[in-house]
Amino acid sequence: MSKKSNVIVEHLRRAQMNDLLAAGKRLDGRGVTESRPMKIETDVIKKANGSALVTLGNTQVIAGVKVQVDKPFPELPDKGLLICSAEVLPLASAYAEPGPPDEDAIELARVVDRGIRESEMIDLKKLVLIPGEKVLAVFADVSVLNVGGNLFDATSYAVVSALLTSKIPKMEVKDGKIVDTGKLMETPIDAVPISVTMARIGDTILVDPTSEEEACMDARVTMTTDAEGRVCAVQKGGTGTFSVEQINHVVATAISKGEEIRAKIKSVTGSG
Amino acid sequence: MKRLSKLINEQGIRTDGRKVNELRPIKIEVGVLKNADGSAYIEFGKNKIIVAVYGPKEVHPKHMALPDRSVLRCRYHMSPFSVQERKNPAPSRREIEISKVTRDALEPALMLDDYPRTAIDVYIEVLQADGGSRCTGIAGASVALADAGINMRDMVAACAAGKVDDTIVLDINDEEDKEGQADMPIAYLPNLNQVSLMQVDGKLSKEEYRKCLDTAIEGCKKVYQLQKEALMKKYFGDEIDVGGSE
Amino acid sequence: MQEIKRRYVVPGDLIGDGNVRPVSNVVRIGDKIFATRVGIAEVSREGARVIPLSGVYIPKVGDLVIGKIIDHSAMAWEVNINSCFPGHLPAQDVFGREFSSARDDMTAKFRVGDMIACKIAAFDRSRDPLLTVADKDLGKIPKGEIVRISPTRVPRLIGKRGSMIQTIEQSTKCGIIIGQNGITVVSGPTPDGILLAVKAIKMVEEEAHTANLTQRVKDMLQSVTGEKIE
């Protein structure tokens, strides 16, 4: 049974799911636009510059932010670095194997990275120490601890919460050398991007799918929006399709749910 | 590299305020991960480690299965944000060695013959490291294995002792690990009175070795009490008083 | 009167000395008997055993289990029976000895995703468990809600001579099939009845190690249905 990388949902359960969906309800009692209960704890890893443990239903992920002096990309000499990565640990599910990230883990990391980068959440220009030579690099690494569906949103919320509460070292340039002043400063934040992932099962679009719903879905889409209601990053996944009407509905939902969740994250991280 | 100041002051107090025979604060929670068959979250001081056990389960690839017993596989891994300088997530040689000695430390306690043609996977993830993480991992793994309901002839407790400023101390922290004179992580089966992990880094005379080993084992016995309490709490509730064996 | 000493134990706890007969989930080392699991240790005239509170289901010949069809080869279905081994249900068990994969369509009988009630026909250390549906009340489960519990709680859910499960069935008017592998199927005429049955099953799983559980389950059921239970 573990050779199958996708969970087989029994027909009895699928039938139950479809009966409920016809009435606009889901197996766990939620409505189609309802998210599962979410808990965010920040500053859980004191040795990191910032961190956040996010529990979204049964999904659990932990993000850690490390800030270090590094060389900028040659073609971007006046910008600091932001590197997001994610690992679905073998801890997290019977189907996760140890080893280099597979295509799902890589897609997860790149989608989360895009959402943060394209929204310009961090002003990378403020991370420059010596242009073209030394900049601050912000590493945001996520370890997925338990797979329970919707890794995209849980991972994104963890990175965003960790960045919002990160304290980075205040560096000075003295005689061409980088000196750590020993003081800390806030990360230069310009935006709070919020991702909302939806799954299509038949004609119904569900927000924040569980593992079971993902195993039964035709297609999914993750959409990241900013506080101005602009869409910054989108990823459609799965082998099914969306109609144009459904996509318009997805955009509206991503913006309104995004507002709701942004308020929650801002209040938890004290950046409201 | 000689330190300018001492690691133990004149009152016998260490850099983190402890006496020489004192353990760091330890926290153990059982059954913290929903998908795993058994799991534990464990802290030794600033070490924060989460352990998951999957098994006994089918072995893939099939040719790795043994006909008469289970295959025990251990993975000790550090998250990139767990140490001072961000660590590349790919397994380092150190992590691979620790994975191996961890497996060797746990195997004597497990009754692998009871589960032929299966595998038991132990995943130890270090979320924050501070000296003695391999012992923290082993202690957590033993609890997670018991939580998974795998037949064990004994629990496995673990603790390190070391030599710092010419003194044998219990449960060395990160600073003492880096700047001390010797370091001895130990894993111990408390009811069978057997040692299953023993490594030494540094110079110890015969007497110092004996004292270091005894100190580490005393530490292991204290860790064992906490492992028992944590399991009792999860399975039997808070009212249970953990007495000695009858 | 037989005296049974009961105690909560973790692996490695000393249970008795060499005079006691080891029964289950204990190990003799030298002249001492130790517990090998987290659970309730019982020492009686019959010997020493530990009733475990966690652990994967290990198949036993004759057990009724609920499985999920996950694949099939030309000759057999592969069935997930919630154990460390996959179960195999030979096509011949269903189609008879004259089964021919050219003529008989396996998917017409059982498809991937179907749930079946079956028995462990054969199992030993050298091979995967063999299943059979050739008995009354076995075969595809057409409807019902699936509730998964730890296999170690199944004896408690069944109760002495079926007393616990019968109490729940009568009070909720539901039919409950219990697989020894911890998978149960609840079916009944009303959604409320099913919900209550599921609640009762989960309550037994949570509190299996406590005393007076049967009375507390009865009290819970009575408080919801308003009907007294004998």
Description:
The complex is a heterotrimer of chains A (272), B (246) and C (230). With 272 residues, chain A is an alpha+beta fold. Chain A contains five helices and twelve strands. In chain A, helix 2 (103-118) crosses helix 3 and helix 3 packs parallel to helix 5. In chain B, the strands form two sheets. Chain B has a five-stranded mixed beta sheet. Chain B is globular and about 60 Å long. The model of chain B is unreliable at 241-246 (pLDDT under 50). With 230 residues, chain C is α+β, with helices and mostly antiparallel strands. Chain C folds into three domains: 5-52, RNA polymerase II/Efflux pump adaptor protein, barrel-sandwich hybrid domain (OB fold (Dihydrolipoamide Acetyltransferase, E2P)), CATH 2.40.50.100; 64-140, Nucleic acid-binding proteins (OB fold (Dihydrolipoamide Acetyltransferase, E2P)), CATH 2.40.50.140; 145-225, 2-Layer Sandwich (Ribosomal Protein S8, Chain: A, domain 1), CATH 3.30.1370.10. Chain C is built from six helices and 16 strands. Chain C has helices spanning 91-95, 106-109, 154-158, 163-172, 191-207, 213-225, and strands at residues 5-9, 14-17, 22-24, 26-29, 32-35, 39-44, 47-52, 64-72, 76-80, 87-90, 115-124, 127-132, 139-140, 145-148, 175-178, 183-187. In chain C, a hairpin with a 4-residue loop joins strand 15 and strand 16. Chain C is flat and about 60 Å long. Chains in contact: A-B, A-C, B-C. The A-B interface holds A 1-3, 44-48, 51, 58, 60, 62-66, 68, 85, 87, 89-94, 98, 100, 139, 141, 143, 145-148 and B 33-36, 39, 46, 48, 50-52, 54, 57-58, 60, 75, 77, 79-86, 89-90, 121, 123, 125, 127-130.
Summarize the structure.
Chain B is α+β, with helices and mostly antiparallel strands and 246 residues long. Chain B contains 4 helices and 10 strands, in the order ββββαβαββαβββα.
Number of strands of chain A: 12
Helix content of chain A: 25-40%
Whole-number total of structural domains of chain C: 3
CATH fold type of the largest domain in chain C:
Ribosomal Protein S8, Chain: A, domain 1
* SSE string of chain C: EEEEEEEEEEHHEEEEHHEEHH
Rg of chain C (C-alpha, Å): 20 Å
SS elements, strand count of chain C: 16
Q: What is the C-alpha radius of gyration of chain A, as a whole number of Å?
A: 20 Å
Q: Give the low-pLDDT segments of chain C.
A: none
Distance between the termini of chain A: 47 Å
**Largest interface: pair, residues per side:** A-B, 34 and 33 residues
